[in-house]
Amino acid sequence: MHTLRLLWAAQNESVWLRRQGRYLSRQQLETVDEMPDELFIQHFRLSKIVFKQLCRILRARTTLRGTPEIPLEIKVLCTLSFLATGSYQRVVGVAQHLTQHTTSRCIREVVDALNHRNIIKRWITFPQTPQERSRIKEQFQRKFNLPGVIGCIDCTHISIVKPTDSEHLFYNRKGYHSLNIQMICDHNLLILNVNSKFGGATHDSHIWSASEIEPYMRRLHESGEHVWLLGDSGYPQRPWLMTPILNALPGSQEEIYTSRHVQARNCIERCYGLLKSRWRCLLKDRTLHYHPYVASKISLACCVLHNIAVKAQLPVPSDVSIAIDNNDGIDDATSQPSLSNTYDDSQTELIRGRAMLNHLLSRI
Hints:
Shape: globular
Strand content: 5-15%
Structural class: alpha/beta
Strand order of the largest sheet: 3-2-1-4-5
C-alpha cells in the first residue's frame, strides 16, 4: 500500500511538472512583439497589429474569454496556426505547447466566436445602399469595362471526412465528400456573401435559388435599380444575374461581352485561390475531419479572416502560392441544368433576363 501511495504521488508530481512546463512555455509565447512581422504573418496569416485588434474585438463583441492558464491571445494564435496549416501537429508539437485535446477545444471556441453574429455582420456584408453598390459598379466598369456589376458568384468544394448521416448529400461529382460553398466577391476579392449550408451533391443553381441574395437582387430590379452579378453557365440567366454567351461568333458583340465577362468573373476564382492558399485547412488534400456543421463554421471563420486580411491590405505570406480555383475542375458549362425543369416559372424570367442581357450588349 505504501508503494502504491508513492507511485500515485510520483505520478501526480509528474503531471503537475508537465502542466507547469506547458504553462511557462505559453507565458513566454504571450509576447509576440519580438517576432519579426514578416515571420508572424507567415505563421499566423495576420500581422501583429491586426491580430491584436482581432483579439480586442473578439473579447468585446463575443463570449470568448481566456483563462489564467490559457489567455485569449494564445487561443486565437492556436486557431490561426491550425487554419493556416490544416494540421494539429505544428500547433501541438511546436507552436503553442498545448495538448491535442486542449488545442481542439481552443479551436472550437475561437471558430464559434468568429461565427458570432456581431463578427459576421462586421466583416461579411453585401452592399446595402445605392452608394455602396455604385462604388463597386464603378470599379468593375473601370477594371473590366462592364457596367452594372456589383459582384461575382460561384461555388467551391471544401473537402470533408465522410459523414455518418445523409452521406449521399455530401458526395460530389468528383468522387469525394465535400461542402459546396457559394460565395460572392467584389473586384478587390472581398467576400460579400457566403452560403455554406449545402453538401457537395447540391448543384450551384439550387444553392443560388435558396440564397437570401437571390430575392434581394430580384427586389432591386423590381425597384428599378439595374445591377447584376456575374455567374458561369451553371447559373440561370436572369435580369439580375448575367451568364456568358456560349459559342459566340468571333468578333461579335456577344464575343466581346463574353470575353469581358470571363475576365471579370475571374475575381471569384482568384478569391477562392487566395482564400484556400492563405487558410490551407480548406485545401482539398487537407480534408476537414469534422461533422459537416462544424466544417461549415470553420469555412465561414476562414472567410471572416480572409476579409480581415484583405481590408487590412496585408501582403500575401511568402510561403503562399495563389492558384486559380476552378471548382476543382468541374466544367459547369457541360452540366448546365435545364432551366425549364429547374424553375416552374423560369420562362418569363429567362425572357426578361435575355432582354436585360441584350440591353447590356448595347452598352458595350
